[in-house]
Write a sequence for this structure.
């Protein structure tokens, strides 16, 4: 019962992180299950079965808050489902001894990516245009395969790619990725069911993760608007790196003084990434404060450019001897004979 309660709390925390970042539910949950000795295929299968419920709740919550672009969801979810089914079939077919370092390696790489990604300033500018299917289709296929074989990865692969494109608001990127993950999780669960059978799912653990995730889903959809993603991403990336490093070092038979040295190096990298993330967050907030002050003072337009003096521009554009636009046409016509008479008199 104590273990199930801990798993429920992990599911709650993982869903809060996932809802705020658009990633890391599977990474966090799978990392914990591997840490307590669950077989890689069973861990991924259980996490994805729990994700069917959590992603459905997250998708509904994001939809209610207006965070979903259904066009993007339709174009990325179904290729993702194909990739997830293939990944689940692949992971089910290899031995536990081979799967453990494979899965830990994927999780470690994705955790390191989170550290690097969120230690730098996040992109805030947006470009025009729509995301095309020739970009979303391959992205979904790769992200789905990585997600099923690594026990997580849909968000870490799909979310940054959509953010970097600059064609969607961050909150809609997160909402659309979370919503499309429902289809991906269902396809992965089907693949694990065919490959492992029903005994491949650890139902008590699934229930605990599901309960925690369902409680957190509506809160996470609200937190996405206010949580500092910069700091949260770096924090969860360090946790994933350190926990999966243990499995990798065990697979490589790394022992003696080398293991503490590796842990110390990874911890130092984590602290450095957190420091850079805090600096980037503070710098971004100062920049927004300066821009808001300038906008309030009238020295900048909402687009960040100096205001244009339209009256001066009009004066430069109109010749000095041009008729005044302030007078009615009949006034200008009536004045023309008088002006002609004046010229004849001269």
């Amino acid at each position: 019962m104590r273990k199930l309660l801990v798993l429920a709390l992990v599911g709650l925390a993982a869903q809060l992180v996932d809802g705020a970042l658009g990633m890391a539910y599977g990474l966090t949950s799978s990392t914990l299950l591997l840490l307590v000795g669950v077989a890689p295929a069973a861990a991924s299968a259980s996490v994805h079965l729990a994700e069917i419920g959590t992603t459905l709740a997250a998708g509904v919550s994001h939809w209610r808050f207006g965070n979903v672009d259904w066009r993007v969801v339709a174009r990325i979810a179904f290729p993702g489902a194909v990739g997830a089914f293939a990944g689940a079939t692949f992971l089910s077919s290899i031995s536990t001894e081979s799967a453990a370092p494979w899965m830990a390696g994927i999780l470690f790489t994705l955790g390191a990516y989170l550290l690097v990604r969120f230690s730098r300033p996040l992109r805030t500018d947006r470009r025009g245009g729509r995301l095309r299917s020739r970009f979303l289709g391959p992205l979904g296929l790769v992200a789905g395969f990585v997600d099923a074989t690594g026990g997580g990865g849909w968000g870490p692969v799909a979310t940054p790619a959509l953010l970097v494109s600059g064609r969607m608001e961050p909150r809609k990127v997160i909402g659309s990725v979370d919503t499309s993950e429902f289809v991906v999780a269902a396809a992965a669960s089907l693949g694990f069911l065919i490959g492992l059978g029903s005994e491949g799912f650890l139902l008590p653990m699934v229930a605990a993760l599901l309960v925690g995730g369902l409680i957190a889903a509506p809160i996470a959809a609200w937190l996405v608007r206010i949580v500092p993603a910069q700091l949260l991403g770096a924090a969860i990336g360090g946790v994933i790196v350190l926990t999966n490093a243990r499995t990798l070092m065990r697979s490589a038979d790394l022992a003696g003084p080398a293991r503490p040295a590796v842990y110390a190096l990874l911890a130092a990298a984590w602290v450095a990434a957190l420091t850079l993330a805090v600096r980037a967050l503070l710098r971004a907030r100062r920049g927004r404060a300066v821009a808001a002050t300038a906008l309030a003072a009238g020295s900048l337009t909402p687009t960040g450019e100096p205001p244009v003096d339209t009256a001066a521009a009009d004066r430069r554009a109109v010749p000095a001897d041009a008729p005044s636009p302030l007078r009615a046409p009949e006034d200008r016509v009536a004045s023309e004979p008088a002006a002609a008479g004046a010229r004849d008199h001269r």
